[in-house]
Design a protein that fits this description.
Elements: H1 2-19, E1 24-29, E2 34-39, E3 42-48, E4 61-63, E5 67-74, E6 80-89, E7 92-96, E8 112-114, H2 116-129, E9 134-139
Parallel strand pairs: 1-9, 7-8
Antiparallel strand pairs: 1-2, 2-3, 4-9, 5-6, 6-7
Length: 140
């Protein structure tokens, strides 16, 4: 009887674990030019970012991803490549950049730039969890 009960507990655990999607939160600190990524409340990654330079704005607040593209080209800024884009407000997105030497400094037109490898990792995490289970939180 104990063996049957133990088997049922394990089986139930496997099914219920799959029933809940992972919760992904990207916490963006504009003053530190840093992103912390949490999965199910546990810190998984801390990355340097680049946000809006003087004269531009990265919006603050809490957002849900609105759309995602493995590759996007900015129509507004000379078709600049935006790999692994996660859009969260209008034309604002979290995305990879080829200007990795500038990470840690505010140099963008308002988007949140990441190292391409980190952008890919975040993109896959959000893709796996689902946009409705992801949040982008931006603070000064």
């Amino acid at each position: 009887m104990k063996l049957v009960l133990a088997s049922l507990v394990i089986l139930f655990g496997l099914f219920s674990a799959g029933a809940y999607a992972a919760s992904i939160e990207a916490h963006i600190d504009l003053s530190k030019q840093q992103m912390k990524v949490y999965q199910n409340g546990r810190l998984r990654h801390t990355w340097k970012i680049s946000t809006a330079r003087r004269g531009y704005v990265t919006p603050t607040g809490n957002y849900k991803p609105t759309r995602m593209h493995k590759m996007w080209y900015s129509r507004k800024y000379d078709m600049s490549p935006m790999p692994h884009s996660i859009f969260f407000k209008g034309g604002y997105a979290v995305h990879g950049t080829n200007e990795i030497k500038n990470l840690g400094n505010p140099v963008s037109h308002g988007c949140v730039r990441l190292h391409p490898d980190n952008a890919r990792t975040l993109f896959r995490m959000v893709e796996s969890a689902g946009r409705s289970n992801a949040a982008i939180r931006i603070r000064r």
